[in-house]
């Protein structure tokens, strides 16, 4: 562990190094004449630790399944293909990158390969809407499912339900008045866990 006060500085230096590294990659692509043939994605897999950065109005931090733990911006840049200045509220996940890159490059999906993500090329190139889909998360202590504006967060001792359209900060637990919806989302979550369970493994939860 870093001494008190050192982590924020180390975190800032890490981000500055990433920023400089991305700049070097972009400059090299331009020098080689490959910039217009290359799509660049910049994204994170989690929010900031509360003591290092701000997750805006969202609850939680890195390692948490509330919005502050995983709601982060992402950027895609491809000169001449992705229109500049576009902003979308589409919710995507890093597992969407593989099918998106396959579609953008025209590469076929390997036979027999199961892909959990979806192709975002229509969103990026034509500003299309994404078909509704449930999203799932899981860590050692919590599981979560999002269906439309509704999000269920289930811990070992508590179940929470939020409407992110009305309550993006996840401040009001609606699990009791929406008990039927809670049961349905729990069923959906259990079905997803069975679906992704490795063959021959046994769940301990």
Give me some keywords for this one:
alpha+beta; 5 helices; globular; two-stranded antiparallel ribbon; four-stranded antiparallel sheet; 205 residues
Structure, explained:
With 205 residues, this protein is α+β, with helices and mostly antiparallel strands. Helices cover 31% and strands 14% of the residues. The protein contains 5 helices and 6 strands. The chain has a 4-stranded antiparallel β-sheet, with helices on one face. The chain has a two-stranded antiparallel ribbon with strand order 1-2. The radius of gyration is 20 Å and the shape is globular. The mean pLDDT is 90.
Q: Figure out the total of helices.
A: 5
Q: Kindly report the average pLDDT value.
A: 90
- The largest beta-sheet arranges its strands as 3-4-5-6
User: Could you tell me the number of beta strands?
Assistant: 6
How large is the share of residues in beta strands? 5-15%
Unreliable residue runs: none
Topology (SSEs and partners):
Layout: H1 6-31, E1 40-43, H2 67-70, E2 74-77, H3 97-105, H4 121-126, E3 135-138, E4 142-147, E5 150-155, E6 159-163, H5 179-196
Antiparallel strand pairs: 1-2, 3-4, 4-5, 5-6
Question: In brief, what are we looking at here?
Answer:
The longest helix is centred in the N-terminal third of the chain and has 26 residues, at 6-31. The chain is α+β, with helices and mostly antiparallel strands. It has helices spanning 6-31, 67-70, 97-105, 121-126, 179-196, and strands at 40-43, 74-77, 135-138, 142-147, 150-155, 159-163.
């Amino acid at each position: 562990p870093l001494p008190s006060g050192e982590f924020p500085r180390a975190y800032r230096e890490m981000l500055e190094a990433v920023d400089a590294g991305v700049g070097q990659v972009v400059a090299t692509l331009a020098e080689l004449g490959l910039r217009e043939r290359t799509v660049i994605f910049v994204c994170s897999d989690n929010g900031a630790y509360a003591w290092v950065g701000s997750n805006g109005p969202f609850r939680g931090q890195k390692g948490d399944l509330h919005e502050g733990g995983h709601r982060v911006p992402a950027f895609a840049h491809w000169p001449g293909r992705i229109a500049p200045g576009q902003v979308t509220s589409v919710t995507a996940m890093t597992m969407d990158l593989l099918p998106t890159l396959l579609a953008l490059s025209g590469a076929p999906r390997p036979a027999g390969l199961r892909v959990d993500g979806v192709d975002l090329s229509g969103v990026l190139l034509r500003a299309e809407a994404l078909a509704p889909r449930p999203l799932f998360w899981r860590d050692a202590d919590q599981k979560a499912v999002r269906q439309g504006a509704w999000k269920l967060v289930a811990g070992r001792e508590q179940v929470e339900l939020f409407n992110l359209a009305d309550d993006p900060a996840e401040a009001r637990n609606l699990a009791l008045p929406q008990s039927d919806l809670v049961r349905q989302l729990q069923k959906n979550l259990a079905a997803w866990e069975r679906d992704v369970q490795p063959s021959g493994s046994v769940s301990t939860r």
